[in-house]
Amino acid sequence: QSVLTQPPSASGTPGHRVTISCSGSSSNIGRNTVNWYQHLPGTAPKLLIYSNDQRPSGVPDRFSGSKSGTSASLAISGLQSEDEADYYCAAWDDSLNGHAVFGGGTQLTVL
Amino acid sequence: QVRLLASGPGLVKPSETLSLTCTVSGASIYDYYWTWIRQPPGKGLEWIGYISFSGSTNYNPSLKSRVSMSVDTSKNQFSLRLSSVTAADTALYFCAKEHRDGYYDVAFDVWGEGTMVTVSS
Question: Nearest 5 degrees, angle CA A26-CA A39-CA B66?
Fold first, then answer.
């Protein structure tokens, strides 16, 4: 059971928009910034969004992040087949002397 | 270009200690926080902990009693030790660099390729 809750799966058709949610609590998302990772099996995860809504250089602006209260979302617009991957949210949690937590991951399928 | 390369035994016996080292190139180990993350087969990512160049650490509460991390500034390396391993510790282990120097935001912008460690007799 992950501290951050994500839907296990999501899907969308090419060109459309899909949103992935990440639900936390006052000790993590409610107080700290959220980051998102894209993970293709067999490769290293890639930082997609940091500080809730910032994109590292090289990440297309099709990817956007937002946060409200104790929840966060990752939106992917103009869906492409190469976006099919696992997506994880992550944040710092201030409980138990502080530690980092990941969401359980969302497997995105491009139909 | 910053690169991380994890190395260590791919097979560890139950009850023994798993040891991995991550070698950093293209960045100074003095400037950032360094993290270990793992992914058991078929499961999600799990944060193991971090270490700074000064040796300050923070570990996952569920692993705290078995984990230790160290840093070797002369070699630009940091290491992970996980004691009393069981089959549940079988995973792909990643080392990663924090995005901003001097801060820990759980934003890892550079990852090693990952090294598979299997716990089996």
Answer: 65
Phi/psi for B84 (5° steps) reads 50, 50
- Locate B75 and state its tokens: 């070699």
Say what the pLDDT of residue B44 is.
95
From chain B, pick out residues whose CB is under 8 angstroms from the CB of A86.
44
CA distances B17 to B14, B20, B69, B81, B82, Å, are 8, 10, 13, 7, 5
Q: Do A47 and B99 touch (CB under 8 A)?
A: yes
Number of CB atoms found within 10 A of residue B17's CB: 13
Minimum-distance CB partner of A45 among B45, B60, B105: B45
Q: Is A98 in contact with B58 (Cβ distance < 8 A)?
A: yes
- Tell me the pLDDT tens digit for each residue of B56-88: 999 999 999 999 999 999 999 999 999 999 999
The alpha-carbon gap from A18 to the nearest alpha carbon of chain B, in Å, equals: 21
Q: Which value, in Å, is the radius of gyration of the alpha carbons in chain A?
A: 13
Euclidean distance between CA atoms A93 and A100, whole angstroms: 6
pLDDT of residue B51 exceeding 90, the answer is yes
For range A85-106, the mean pLDDT: 96
Q: Which of A44, A50, A96 comes nearest B107 by C-beta?
A: A50
